[in-house]
Specification:
With 459 residues, the chain is mostly helical. It is built from 23 helices and six strands. The protein is 61% helix and 3% strand.
Length: 459
């Protein structure tokens, strides 16, 4: 039956109610008050919010302007727009706040290209373009895959739980308030948004080992109730039928932030020892919500984890991973800067201070300062779970994303037995998420599921 027939029949079957509600205006008022409250709350949230795990304050709409300008464009009248937003927040003028919020999004969309170092680098639009620009190593044989994959997931979840309580702060702020952090700063839990997208990827591949970006995006729509920054915009695009790669680019000023970089590890676990396959899957997943350097961030962590199954030396691992990033990309320049900072300094704080200064124009949720933090932590921490965890935490920035991805790789390298009990015991085997149908899981069950999905991929 055609849609018009269904609707015609449905409408024809309706009958008016006789005086159903003498206070009908209350129905209107109640419905509209709820909608208005929700819209006003969302507008306030982008101007002033707190991170759920660490309570760090953020202003993601100003981050949007910052991000667009990082990408070589000028947001017209940005200072005046920001001032209007501050005044509307202070006065509680919800109408003006809605207007200026709209004006900021529109100004970000219409930002004009200007002279910028950003344009000195190649913009990568597709996996094929990426693949032609790098030499990806041949697959290597992996031993103890199941045990090391469990170790990887355990390391990732420990790292995420540790970092969630510390994200959004500088090294100096952490030192001033918390001191030298060498343990969970509070009772840990496993809630964060990082693993959410990795679980959706696993489900999509479980149902269809040849799943495309569109298939993975469809699973996002089914399983993930909400997102933030780039993922929030991508989820809204997907819900309206906008498919990748447009879903990651359209109206998305955050497309080079950390949201793809924070979910690359699972691609490496599904393709252990196979940098090329891990990179391809990372590109398929990354373009759902990101573009260019944002996707290269996911490729970086996918390759890092894939090679951690076959490389025992942490510095060699970093060098091999860097080799899988195109030399003419801005992302490569970021990685190279961090690597050279490490090579020139004997202490991690000296190297990290150079990175903090170099990337201060980027938001703490951007991919660049965070991949630099990963590099510094792994370079000086080596294949030592405790030392690497300490450094990646003390670097600050988006600590849960960084520690989760990095400690996955380190745990794969060293194994479960090398993870100190103080990190393992508080976590146990429990994994709580906000993913539909996966709210209460076990880490061992997740590792087993990952192995089963890998087997379906037929590698």
């Amino acid at each position: 039956m055609k849609a018009w027939e269904l609707e015609h029949t449905y409408m024809a079957g309706q009958r008016p109610l006789l005086n159903p509600d003498p206070d009908n205006e209350k129905r209107w008022e109640g419905a509209m008050e709820a909608v208005e409250f929700g819209q006003d709350a969302m507008n306030r949230l982008v101007w002033d919010s707190s991170v759920p795990g660490s309570y760090a304050k953020e202003r993601v709409i100003i981050g949007a302007i910052q991000s667009v300008e990082n990408m070589g464009r000028e947001v017209e009248n940005s200072a005046a727009l920001i001032e209007r937003g501050f005044k509307a927040m202070e006065s509680g003028d919800t109408v003006e706040l809605a207007l200026v919020t709209y004006d900021v999004w529109a100004a970000c969309r219409d930002a004009k290209k200007v002279e910028s170092p950003y344009w000195d680098y190649t913009v990568y639009e597709s996996f094929e373009q990426y693949e032609s620009a790098v030499w990806l190593p041949r697959p290597e044989q992996v031993v103890d895959y199941e045990a090391r994959t469990y170790a990887g997931w355990l390391g990732q979840i420990i790292g995420g739980a540790f970092g969630t309580a510390m994200e959004g702060y500088t090294t100096d702020a952490i030192l001033e308030t918390l001191g030298e952090v060498r343990d969970y700063p509070r009772k840990p839990n496993t809630y964060n948004d990082d693993i959410t997208y990795e679980l959706a990827l696993l489900r999509a591949l479980e149902l269809n080992p040849a799943a495309t970006s569109a298939d993975i995006a469809r699973m996002w729509n089914a399983l993930i109730p909400s997102g933030w920054s780039a993922e929030d915009i991508a989820l809204k695009n997907i819900a309206r039928g906008i498919t990748p790669p447009e879903s990651g680019y359209f109206g998305n000023p955050y497309r080079e932030w950390i949201g793809a970089q924070m979910r690359g590890a699972v691609c490496g676990m599904l393709h252990p020892g196979n940098a090329a396959a891990a990179a391809k899957l990372a590109w398929e997943d990354g373009c759902i919500s990101h573009h260019n350097n944002g996707i290269l961030g996911e490729v970086y962590n996918a390759v890092l984890v894939a090679l951690s199954y076959v490389e025992a030396n942490s510095r060699t691992l970093l060098l091999r991973t860097m080799d899988c990033i195109p030399e003419d990309s801005e992302y490569y320049a970021v990685v190279k800067f961090a690597m050279e900072a490490c090579e020139k300094n004997t202490q991690w704080r000296a190297a990290w201070a150079l990175c903090e200064e170099r990337f201060k124009e980027y938001n703490w949720i951007h991919a660049y300062p965070n991949v630099a933090a990963q590099i510094v932590a792994l370079w000086y921490g080596g294949a030592d779970f405790e030392a690497t965890m300490y450094i990646v935490g003390m670097c600050g920035q988006d600590v849960d994303c960084n520690a989760a991805q990095l400690m996955n790789a380190v745990a794969i390298m060293v194994g479960v037995a090398a993870i100190p009990l103080k990190w393992k015991a508080p976590i146990g085997d429990k994994l709580d998420t906000y993913v539909r149908g996966m709210k209460h899981m076990t880490i061992s069950g997740l590792a087993k599921w990952t192995c089963e999905v890998k087997a379906k991929l037929g590698e």
